[in-house]
Specification:
There is one protein chain. By secondary structure, the protein is of the alpha+beta class. Helix content is about 35%, strand content about 25%. It has 4 helices and 5 strands; from the N terminus they run βααβββαβα.
Amino acid sequence: MLVRKADTKDIEQLSKLFDEYRVFYRKDGDLNGAKVFLTDRMLNKESEIFVVENDEKNLMGFIQLYPIFSSTRMKRIWLLNDLYVNEKYRGKGVSIALMEEAKTFALKTNSAGLILETEKSNLIGNSLYPKVGFKLEIEHNFYFWNT
């Protein structure tokens, strides 16, 4: 199992994983849209994407981080927006490897840390995050505005 930064040569396989991820969150599948979206993020350097590949060079999962900034800390914080592992590779430590890579990256970039949000119903994620050192924030409210 190899964890590494994704690049444009990964777009075909990564797009399939990304499309599976979106379907998991009850969105319609759109493989072509996934390719365009991920290619844009990479080419415009708008996110950092890390993947795990197996010995056969198949991508098993990915994590995508977006930069945001904390005014009070006067540093970047990485928004861990997307984490997904293909069903056949779950339970093999892929998500933990991706989370550890994200934490290492946050340290290397001298950021204030990582933040994430997940649905209360995401039992796997809500079990994983404390296991890898994340703390559940109960002091703040999360608000949302849709367009």
